[in-house]
């Protein structure tokens, strides 16, 4: 590091960025707005935004535009926004300004044909990008903030005031054309994979393919690979250099090097721009430019210095990248190759390599590939646990089979894509090889995914675990790098040195692996769960998670009427983030979709092996017999070979210190239909009582009136409806804490003001998921504590 000052500069700038984030120094591009404007953006306000189109991306059911240098008027104030994400759906109206019609002769423009560089005015609902409100949930606001995008608009109409164009638009059109050609000449799944590899465009990629590659440990293939860009760039440079030397002769070698390097730099820079400037491509291009500069100046190329220089440039342009998963994973992978891989090679005896050139060459190549995979994964493992909460078990085998072929596949894909511009038939013939290979790859990754234990759910490690692991990994690298050669010593001392080295040889081979093993132990250590109840923020719906100190997990409802795919994007990520691999039981209170559709998603995922989380049993209230949801649950239970049980008043479950008793529906008589027939659970744990009421109201509340007692925690029924939880019921319960699951802008106005007033009169502290995010209540000896995801 003494000879690498650029590395120290990069580390210092990272430290400055981290301190700025802790202290709130505005260096990340967040818009400076007043409190009134900030409140309006929090809830969303209809207005218009004017800006220039800086990017365009095709989504499944919409077009996404990025506007730069934008202005908007909110609360009577004009605000400047560096970037705005504008989503255009099929029903949006596109208008063309008279000046554009007069100049370009265009009167109509498709919603997908607004060129980059155009000046447009979009009308719609302007708001902050949604932030995560549950542990484990993908944080869209943090993701876009790293790219200096903080606000979004779903537009209803767009007016094109100036027509754009230029190099970026030409490249974007070629990019979209290649995607269309791939779709026409290949099967759907291979076309999606190749489009992701070559273009960084995942619009054709199916959920099935994504899941197969992720579970097989080769999901890095579904992105612009920095390694492949570097290989492609070096190949172009070498080819140009040989061509120029053949034309002009060896005596002009230095000029040929400069010309080849300059041409290769322009080509790879254009390709990076063509792919949409993803982090991995930008990093690879900067490092490739450093490599070319070294060739021109006749200087040696240092991988660590090039990596630090690339990181410094990207972080100067966008400091928020330091907290971006893509940035960290891309740079960490190269860091593993640069630092850990050479250290691992030192563990092998010096006389190991080239013992039998012809017979052992393949074995040596396989061993080198295994060590390279180990070095990359030992560095990436903590980041994968932090951001994805799981690790693929069979990743080594899949990588050894597929990764060596990816460079050739990328070359075939590029050649075939270019030939498609001349003739779809000729290009399709070339792409046929890639099509066959990727179809076989799809089958292979699908088989790997179906293997038992294909994925290990690790949960999310704490910060101290990450730092402890990386500290021990660095110590292991330093131990492996330490060499005692014994040169320039007297003969007697050399002999003593050699004897000492032999006696301590075991230390060299056993101590570093032991240090790494200790780091892995720290990284994967998870504390036993406490007795707790967590209400997830699922918008207009309910989802509760009960955990016992015995290590068992129960779900009580899981659904939403305003959050799409709530099971996939909110419930399942929470379970994985907590390291939950098994659900002891799933309760459903009643049949409404806002309580059940997420659970049905989870059951479907388990039945199709889209998740490795195991479900032990399902418990439904007697009132749901014969219901359509009950029939679906019964079908999934048969597929999973798990019991489906029906519960009613008086049924009990004891799990360690936690006891659960069913209060409703009654065994005979009483309310049986709709919200009034909801399942009601009373939880008793370490001297505390909690009442979980589903959507109970009306006759159902009358049914349980005689069974009610004073409680410490009340899950308020029906999202805080005025028609539930009457005053008479609250006078009996007198809850200390009341939890309400309701969104910021409920279609039904939940929670209603009348209900909130009743709770206030009863002396309850009211926590609503729209304000607090997910709420976790822990039951301990002598105290009950509540913690909100949004900390004030």
List key phrases describing it:
about 800 residues; about 50% helix; eight-stranded mixed beta sheet; about 20% strand; globular; 24 strands; seven-stranded mixed beta sheet; alpha/beta
Task: Give a structural overview.
It is a single chain. The protein has 792 residues and is α/β, with parallel strands linked by helices. 49% of the residues lie in helices and 19% in strands. It contains 25 helices and 24 strands. The strands form 5 sheets. It has an 8-stranded mixed sheet with strand order 15-14-12-10-9-8-23-24. A 7-stranded mixed sheet has the order 16-17-18-19-20-21-22. Strand 23 and strand 24 form a beta hairpin. Helix 6 packs across helix 15 and helix 8 runs parallel beside helix 10. The longest helix is centred in the middle third of the chain and has 32 residues. The two termini are 42 Å apart. About 1% of the residues have low confidence.
Strand content: 15-25%
What fraction, in percent, of the residue positions are helical?
40-55%
The secondary structure category is alpha/beta
* Number of separate strands: 24
- Give the low-confidence spans: 484-489
What best-fitting shape do the alpha-carbon axes yield?
Answer: globular
Q: In order across it, which strands form the biggest sheet? A: 15-14-12-10-9-8-23-24
> Please, what is the average pLDDT?
89
Ordered list of secondary-structure elements with their pairings:
Layout: H1 5-23, H2 35-43, E1 45-58, E2 62-74, E3 77-96, H3 98-104, E4 119-128, H4 140-145, E5 151-162, H5 167-185, H6 188-199, H7 207-215, H8 226-248, H9 253-274, H10 279-297, H11 303-317, H12 325-345, H13 357-388, E6 390-392, H14 395-422, H15 424-450, E7 455-457, H16 463-481, H17 491-503, H18 505-524, E8 532-535, E9 541-547, E10 553-560, H19 566-577, E11 582-583, E12 585-587, H20 593-607, E13 614-615, E14 618-621, H21 628-640, E15 644-647, E16 652-655, E17 658-664, E18 680-685, E19 688-692, H22 699-703, E20 713-715, H23 727-733, E21 737-740, H24 753-761, E22 765-768, H25 769-772, E23 775-780, E24 783-788
Parallel strand pairs: 3-5, 10-12, 11-13, 12-14, 14-15, 19-20, 20-21, 21-22
Antiparallel strand pairs: 1-2, 1-4, 2-3, 4-5, 6-7, 8-9, 8-23, 9-10, 16-17, 17-18, 18-19, 23-24
Helix pairs in contact: 1-11, 5-6, 6-15, 7-15, 8-9, 8-10, 9-10, 10-11, 11-12, 12-13, 12-16, 13-16, 14-15, 16-18, 19-20, 20-21
